Amino acid sequence: MNHGNKLRKFNRERNQRRALLAGLARSLVLKERIKTTEAKAKSLRPYVEKLITHSKVGTLSSRKLLISKIGVGGAKKLMEVLGPKYKERKGGYIRIIKVPRRVSDGSSIAVIELV
Length: 115
Description:
Elements: H1 14-31, E1 33-37, H2 38-57, H3 60-85, E2 94-99, E3 109-114
Antiparallel strand pairs: 1-3, 2-3
């Protein structure tokens, strides 16, 4: 039974999963639109939405948390650009759009972007 297991493992160890999500989150924040597999996009959505919510607060502790999660460049953009942009929005900062499958291996692909 798979009850209560909502975490996707991506056939990686814990540190590798964390690094994967942090790298995808950094790319999404800096580029505002990336193309990845559908499963990775679905796992990335709550991770980045929590980061955007922290950036709306604007305190020093939230800035330190963002730096520890996605680095200095991503944290700076979150605090200065995206936090004020989504100040009035209560959630739902990310959109996932499915695109045709990848030709090489047939993986389902999605475009994930900031609204």
